[in-house]
Specification:
about 20% helix, two-stranded antiparallel ribbon, single chain, six-stranded mixed β-sheet
Amino acid sequence: MRAVAQRVASASVDVGPERVGAIGEGLLVYLGAGREDTDADVDYVVGKLAGLRVFEDDEGKMSRSVEDVGGAVLVVSQFTLYGDVRKGRRPSFSKAADPAEAERLYEAVVAGLRARGLEVATGRFRAMMNVRGDVWGPVTILVDSQKNF
């Protein structure tokens, strides 16, 4: 499972004219599920995202997590994180999970973050979305559960 987390002052996601998710300070997370991902990957990603120390303390050091600062998380599904361009210029998505399993894993990450007491907003799975983020820093971190095992 791959997640790209950005520290944001605010973020939102629209589907057409409808605003489907929005947060203030927190993390904007683009989340993709791979064919080999399991519930262990979900647990790893949830733990990393909730505990990711990218918010500054009183001394200006990044030592606080989204949990510590009372921030929120906006999770947006993005299978293109599994785009492979090593051969040619057109991405191959053969390592991305099939849509039904990807949605299950996506929902499990959202549920896991909520179970930790975080406010979580979401995009709409498999929809064309317009995502906006007021990225703060900028701070952007890649979390890849397959590089953990």
